[in-house]
Amino acid sequence: EIVFPVYCKVQDDLARFRRGYAKTVTFISLVTFPLMAGLMVVAPEFIRAVYGAKWLPAAWPLRILCLSAAVMSVMYLTPAVLEAKGRPDIGFKWHLVLLPTTVISLLFGARWGLTGIAVTMTVLAGLSIVPMVIATSLIGLPQAAVVRALAPALTGAIAMTALVGGAKAAFASRLAALPGVAGLALLVGLGVAGYVIVVKMWWPEAAGEFQGFMRRMVAREGR
Prior knowledge:
The protein is mainly α. It is 85% helix and 0% strand.
């Protein structure tokens, strides 16, 4: 993992560890939350444009799995924190419990087809909050701080979902008259613009730090 060596360097400096973890959560969620929220709201248009109308029944399972993916994008940091603090055993024990739970849950959820499996996967993803709480407690980070780290992405994603969903409802007939790809591109462009505006207006500090991070990454790749 990319973050593990960084966390190891600050494992004994809990203040820096907490700041680094919170900033990583913010940066990851600023990318993954709008992607998943956007795909949730335009799932039918995406499926129709990419796979064809016959696959439209998969729209709801896709939407549900987007929620699961958004959660897991942040939870993937948990093993790095546990390992950096010398407690990989917690993750191992958690997976020993989770493995049979996953198998049993999927067998049960499969009775309702793709939607049942998608719901099951999302519930299981939500359970990963348990090891995350343990990991953050090891570095003395309160859960309120985790929520604050997620706030910029959550705010932007909710606003974007409302904007695109409202546009779909208000201009349904006009969007239906457009070619599939054109309508999808229009909704995506509207969503991206709305998300960026909301995050920059309400969370200028987080937006500025993220932009600076991305510039440094691009400059490093360009060398």
